[in-house]
Amino acid sequence: MAKNLFLLPGDGIGPEAMGEVRKIIAYMNSAMKADFKLDEGLVGGSAYDAHGVAISDADMAKAMAADAVLFGAVGGPKWDGVPYEVRPEAGLLRLRKDMELFANLRPAICYPALAAASSLKPELVEGLDILIVRELTGGVYFGEPKQIIDLGNGQKRGIDTQIYDTYEIERIAGVAFELARTRKNTVCSMEKRNVMKSGVLWNQVVTETHKRSYSDVKLEHMLADAGGMQLVRAPKQFDVIVTDNLFGDMLSDVAAMLTGSLGMLPSASLGAPDGKTGKRKALYEPVHGSAPDIAGKGIANPIAMIASFAMCLRYSFNMIAEADNLEKAIANVLDQGIRTGDIMAEGCRQVGTTEMGDAILKE
Amino acid sequence: MAKNLFLLPGDGIGPEAMGEVRKIIAYMNSAMKADFKLDEGLVGGSAYDAHGVAISDADMAKAMAADAVLFGAVGGPKWDGVPYEVRPEAGLLRLRKDMELFANLRPAICYPALAAASSLKPELVEGLDILIVRELTGGVYFGEPKQIIDLGNGQKRGIDTQIYDTYEIERIAGVAFELARTRKNTVCSMEKRNVMKSGVLWNQVVTETHKRSYSDVKLEHMLADAGGMQLVRAPKQFDVIVTDNLFGDMLSDVAAMLTGSLGMLPSASLGAPDGKTGKRKALYEPVHGSAPDIAGKGIANPIAMIASFAMCLRYSFNMIAEADNLEKAIANVLDQGIRTGDIMAEGCRQVGTTEMGDAILKE
Ligand SMILES: CC(C)[C@H](C(=O)O)[C@@H](O)C(=O)O
Ligand SMILES: CC(C)[C@H](C(=O)O)[C@@H](O)C(=O)O
Fold it and tell me: Are B137 and B179 in the same domain?
């Protein structure tokens, strides 16, 4: 049966990185009879330029219908002045919300060949393998009221609302515990229960979910600020971290930077399994942004985008062997000293976007 | 004129660390005729044990009347189960709110003698000197509604509200710009304007305040998640960082950990200058917590508490020379290789809390 992929390359280096994934898909279709069917749409600034919105309803419908969405990156200085509602990020946020992609998986792994590139001492990051499970459709990102009110007298008031319901915390905790079972069986839940009521509820619900269904998994709780500290101090103490949308945004970026492999890190955003088919809606995207400063130059690192496709093979199509192969090809190419400019090191060979894609394909 | 200090040692290692500050104050009173008058109260778990609240109204009144408050630390497993309203942290939060201490200054400096203790590569942190200016009386810490609602059906809803008014952002931006002028004249403002309306307002008001009164200072804006990354990647790019209460909590902890000097870092929380006297209400506290695991053993590092007193001399009493001297004494003692257990390194001499205090006093 055909596997329908909807590509949203977006802005900046998104299209270049996506080009390398297209090559891999073409190869899999021809040499391995994989039967991927591709369609493509616009998101972010490029959608705004074409349609005046950050994603059109037509593309949104295609994303909803696809087996998986591959997303590049959005944003750039060109669109800094556009209205809040149609800013590039709004396209990504609408995809997450409308597709109900509540579970964002962000692996922070340190490729051995790149340990020296971390700003941390190599012995602290060598072999690092953390999975951050971030809640993605709730919290302060989407809670209402969310507005700026004019109070008169030159005073305005900006309001955002953090809201979490029991079921939202339960389902993301469930994902974290399930994934921990396939790893080192340890979950650390992070919130600010000493200051936030949503943090108090988060802590309670994670604790109850654990007790009810996952008591075989080791569970720890940490305040989110202490968690940020511990990530910097001794990141290898963590296996799976589960946290809310905003803390997840901050903590996963810090964790990604620790690895020295920022341009290499993928992410998966998953919905709930469909009641009938068991299939999850899913979107895969690199953790890096649109990097407008190097866009169009053919020098962007496509590895995060390719690794995102590997996650897609794994989580959307259960093509575990293929995903493993692709991830191994990435590691091999790095071991051979082939590097894009962002991860260049002494004694390595610097290549552009397409050469990197070709090298991985060859592996 | 007598200088009235109100001491709130709190829980855990707070009282031990405060003991060393008492010694320094006694010395200043006797040898330097400094005329500090001391009073002492209870806060956190120890206040809860005595009065059933995290700070009593009587102690609150003393804090309001004092020239400055010295605060130790609060919390510990003993009070994990107490009701939310009277948990140890509530005492600290009430002090901040009732004294209107809207400006929290958190220097993240790297003591040269301790650069090797950082988890970052030494060359990235040697000479590091960042000042984080965190808004402390607004945002999600205090906004209403802040509650857990029972929705029935086993579902609860946790709600917190982030609120910022123009004047709140203006005054904290003003503090950041003023302080930048005494340093490298550069401010980086951090928010999530791509997701939060309060972030949009924050960005606007900081920009306008800059234009109106501080255009001689260099101003930069960064998304808070990117800011967390950049702190880990290349912390020396920053001079003054200004950010909201919650981002400030996270980012200042990450920054503190970077320095390798966590047990050494002080903070100052300041109110607005009084219209008549020009005096600011102020509270000084170490960045580290109550460390219940090592409390009562005489091994805690008192440096952060002593450095907090140095900030007190500087900001509340304009005793700049005395503050400089005290800070230099700390650096000298570290240079001599005298260390408490938390910062112990090869070839150094390990001492306890009181010996460390004595060594600094001697200097
Ligand atoms: C682009 C932005 C809206 C987004 C977020 O804040 O979630 C990004 O930072 C991320 O982490 O995916
Ligand atoms: C103890 C706690 C309430 C406090 C905070 O979150 O502000 C602490 O983490 C801090 O940074 O001073």
Answer: yes
**Cβ(A118)–Cβ(A231) below 8 Å:** no
User: What is the per-residue pLDDT across B88-146, written as a single tens digit (0 to 9) for each?
Assistant: 999 999 999 999 999 999 999 998 888 888 999 999 999 999 999 999 999 999 999 99
Query: Which residue of A124, A158, A247 is in closest CB contact with B197?
Result: A158
Q: Is A293 on the interface with B (CB under 8 A)?
A: no
Instruction: Report the pLDDT averaged over residues A105-113.
Output: 93
> Are residue A165 and residue A103 in the same domain, yes or no?
no
Instruction: Tell me whether residue B116 is in a domain.
Output: no
8 Å CB contact of A160 and B196: yes
Cα–Cα nearest to B91, from B148, B130, B35, B52: B52
CA angle B311, B312, B316 (to 5 degrees): 120
Residues in chain A closer than 8 A to B89 (CB atoms): 194-195
In this structure, what CATH number is given to the domain that contains residue B54?
3.40.718.10
Percent of chain A's residues with pLDDT above 70: 100
Ramachandran sector of residue A12 (left: φ over 0; alpha: ψ -120 to 50; beta: rest): left
**Rounded Cα–Cα distance for residues B240 and B238 (Å):** 6
CB B193 within 8 A of CB A184: no
Which two three-digit tokens encode residue B230?
Answer: 């950049």
Q: Same structural domain for residues A144 and A208? A: yes
For residues A98 and A89, what is the distance between their CA atoms, to the nearest angstrom? Answer: 14
Mean per-residue pLDDT over chain A, rounded: 96
Strand A3-10 and strand A36-40: the pairing is parallel
- Token pair, residue B289, equals 């917590």
Same structural domain, B145 and B237: yes
Beta strand pairing call for A103-109 and A129-135: antiparallel
**Distance from first CA to last CA of chain B, Å, rounded?**
27
Q: Which residues pair with B108 in a beta bridge?
A: B130
Min Cα–Cα distance to chain A from B167, Å: 7
- CB spacing of B121 vs A121 below 8 angstroms: yes
Full residue range of the structural domain in which residue A172 is found = 129-258
Q: Residue range B136-164: average pLDDT?
A: 98
Banded model confidence at residue B1, pLDDT cuts 50, 70, 90: confident
C-alpha triplet B306, B309, B311: angle, nearest 5°: 115
Query: Ligand 1 pocket by C-beta < 6 Å: which residues?
Result: A 89, 92-93, 249; B 194-195, 225
